[in-house]
Amino acid sequence: MKLALVALAAVSYVVAQGTVPPWGTCGGIDWTGGTVCSEGQYCHEWNPWDST
């Protein structure tokens, strides 16, 4: 449950800020959140559903 709340907070932060924080989700099938990484970071596609 605690992990779910942390994940929800991270997603909320990304949507509000427009950039993805380090280790935040940045893409995947049906992803509608941020796709611009923080300075010095990059997005890695782990599989079609999850990129961080």
UniProtKB/TrEMBL annotation:
Superkingdom to which the source organism belongs: Eukaryota
An example molecular function term from Gene Ontology annotations: cellulose binding
One Pfam family here: CBM_1
Keywords: Signal
SUPFAM superfamilies: Cellulose-binding domain
Domain CBM1: 18-52
GO biological process, one term: carbohydrate metabolic process
N-terminal signal peptide: 1-16
GO CC terms: extracellular region
Protein name: Carbohydrate-binding module family 1 protein
Taxonomic source organism: Rhizoctonia solani 123E
